[in-house]
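Researcher: Please translate sequence to structure tokens.
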Amino acid sequence: MVGRGKQNIGGLASRRRRNMWVAVVVATVVAVVVVATVLVTVRPWTEEFRHGGLTIAAPPAPVKPFPQLTPAAPNAPEADRQGLANALAPVATSPDLGTFAGSVSDPDTRTTLWSADPDKPMIPASTLKVMTTAAALLVLPADQRLTTRVVAGSSPGEVVLVGAGDPTLTAQADGKGYYPDGPKLSDLVAQIRAAGHPVDSVVVDNSVYSGPAWPAGWDPADIAGGSWAPIESVMIDGGRLDPLVEYSPRSATPALDAGRRLALELGADPAKVRLGTAPAGAAELAHVDSAELRDRLRDMMIHSDDVLAEAIGREIAAVTGGEQSFAGAAAATLTALRAAGFDTTGVTQIDNSGLSTDDRVPARLLDRILAEAAASDPAAGTTANGTAAPVVNTGDSGAAPSPLAPLLDYLPVAGGSGSLAERFTDGGPQRSGAGWVRAKTGTLSVSSALAGYVLDRDGRVVTFALMSNDRPPEASRPALDAVATALRNCGCS
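Model: Translation complete:
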């Protein structure tokens, strides 16, 4: 009996364990079913859930783009002067323009269609870069490059970094500095090491430039503000302390900083880097070349790069036998423009970037340069001073293209690129100028300017130079944009 009782107790326990497992399994299945039902109902991972129950439409069928670039119609009617004056009257008299001067021309006929104090010398700000670019196109080859070299020094273990006026060298590890296609410090380092030349000290030869590192009318506070660095013949990323930021604070000693970085990369003591000159006939150990002039001009104009403008001004001086200084570059620029037939009366040029508040340029000159760049017939007229007009754009006449024609491609696009990217985009009336106005901007605390060209509603190209002094930029720039937009909207034939 005892034995059978034990068996019965064991069997009962076994059945209870089986029943418990069955219950667990059933409960689990039920739980899974419930959770699955909830998930199917809610579907938290679906687009409908993430977008508040809204469904996402299927993507549209892809559209194949067919980009086209076509010239302005050769037979578009010329604007009527009175009609243009009527169109500009409401905006060209805005008090936000302060002291105002302007000139609007038809490049095909080389006639001035409208003007307001066109001969008045005005502070041009960065529209002076139009003159720098024009002079460079007139006297320099488009494929010109600048070569930065490293040569053996006068003592064992010494090398000399010899600047040639290129501020676009970069020390970025990936070689992608601020300037596209800028030469790489790492290439200099690799060539020096390959030459087997021991290095324990670095000298920087900055002697190709002469005169002061900045001229009258430049504010040294703008070095830390990121507008410019002292103009020296070798720099890394234009002297920017943060190589990839346009308005990064700049170095006060950019040439020495370039030498210090080279020393660091070569394992020499950066603290021992000094200024000096390369020995005559020193053996070259390494060299790197800048991008071509055409690319540097584009970057200078699109981004209004002041350091690049000053470096290019010195290239103009060098090729014409002048001193590579502020005075020499300014003189060479004006000489090149006069030789091409431009009237520079009223110009006071201190620099090649327009940073100086002592610069003065009449709107007439900027407009005339742009009109010559945009003209379709090189035999159509004369310049403002009555001399033979410079040879200009090709058109259908078969004439040689103007050396100034590339200037048009270097201008920022309203609402689209460079210093005009954020303008003409606020949804106001100026919005209709976006994509149509192309112009060089100019902005200082005492001056705003806009110089470029636009296709009017009749399909006719007109050039313009608009210059405002004595008003803050936040007031004068929208007022200038309104004038340029009125030119775009004018069907004034």
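Researcher: Any highlights?
Model: Residues 95 and 415 are 24 Å apart (CA to CA).
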